[in-house]
Amino acid sequence: MSTPTISRTGQRIFDAHDGDAGAGTISLDGRAPRATHTLAAVEGTSSPQADPYAVTTTTAPAGSNTTDRGRSTSDAQTADAPVGSDSETGAEMVPPTESAPRPSLFDPTLYTLAQYLDDVEGLRKAQGNRRRILTTTEPDEDGVMRGFGLDSTHPVVATIEAQIEQLEAIEHQAILSLNRAMRKHPLAGWQKQAKGVGEKQLARLLAAIGDPYINATTGQPRTVSQLWAYSGLHVLPAGAIDDPSPEGRAPLPGAKQATGGDSGHGLYDNHNADAGVAARRRKGVQSNWSTDAKTRAYLIATSCIKQQGPYREVYLARREHTAVTRPDWTPGHSHADGLRIVSKRILRDLWRAARDYYLEEN
């Protein structure tokens, strides 16, 4: 049987370390593919709830360091690190897997339900904004009156309010369906013991990143650093900025040229920092990570730090650390940095749970 390649995407987003999606991919929604999963049919699968596909994994040689596409790299996002390293910035190398392939952790049902919930939620918010504009009677903070001052008896306002009620009921059912699908996912056990991680939140994160352990493009294992990079939580080389040098402009004096730009250009140093620089979006520059995955990870981290548990302890420890090492940071800056570290820890634990799933004997 031939091995199909399925793209499970919305917008065109590259997996960690650049590279276009493969030609001939099938888009579920007709748009440009973001990531693909290589799946092999499992003989004899008959249960409607079982994943009818299995991921074929290929293990890289021990000690090797590769990108998601299998090429060697010296990029800071995939720097070598000892096996089992817990460093927040080092890569955990993938252990060898000798067991038979297991069903993929990418669940098309989970992905579809998450996308459906996004659509309903977005429409409900849009209608809520329309109702607010129509019914606002007070000027905004800048003193400009932008509302129309209509009341609920106006036919347009009444229609929008009725639609919002219907959308809220549909959204509630969509959440229930998504939660039920999450309970049948192989990583549901990890979710139950992860303090502060909800079913709906984890389902939407998995819809954004796909399989935490298997790279969507190559079907091969990836390091935790590559998962961070795909989620926009990687660190660029020291002194680099996430902005390709404009054509024809020479690098600044003393600048260090780095690799990994989206467009193939080098990254140029313009502030000679001593530590790595967190990647961020820049106007006019196409980023090579998933904004959706980064947002979902941050939302889970925000929920986790509100409850007593290991992730809150990680957050508080980070805040105490930066209070000493970065006394110039504002409380908001320190809070955002703490959420970033917690997001990376959550993704690391999720990556480990996915790795253990594939290492278990069938």
Provide the descriptors you would attach to this structure in a database record.
3-stranded mixed sheet, mainly alpha, 3 domains, 362 residues, two-stranded antiparallel ribbon
Care to describe what's here?
It is a single chain. The chain has 362 residues and is mostly helical. It has three domains: 1-105 and 200-234 and 289-362, no CATH class; 108-184; 236-278, no CATH class. The protein has eight helices and nine strands. The chain has helices spanning 108-135, 155-183, 188-193, 199-209, 224-230, 291-304, 310-325, 331-359; strands at residues 5-7, 26-27, 36-38, 40-41, 53-54, 235-236, 257-258, 267-268, 277-278. The strands form four sheets. It has a three-stranded mixed beta sheet, with no helix packed on it. It has a two-stranded antiparallel ribbon with strand order 4-5. Helix 1 runs antiparallel to helix 2 and helix 4 runs antiparallel to helix 6 (291-304). The longest helix has 29 residues, at 155-183. It is globular. The two termini are 22 Å apart.
Count of the separate structural domains:
3
Strand sequence of the main sheet, in spatial order? Answer: 2-1-3
Q: What's the alpha carbon Rg, rounded to whole Å?
A: 23 Å
Q: Major sheet: size, sense and barrel closure? A: 3 strands, mixed
What is the 3D shape?
Answer: globular
Question: Which structural class is indicated by helix and strand composition?
Answer: mainly alpha
- Distance from N terminus to C terminus (CA atoms, Å) equals 22 Å
Mean pLDDT: 74
- Assembly context of the chains: single chain
* Number of DSSP-assigned strands: 9
Share of β-strand residues: 5-15%
Low-confidence stretches: 1-90, 242-274
Helix content: 25-40%
Q: What is the number of helices?
A: 8
Order of helices and strands: EEEEEHHHHHEEEEHHH
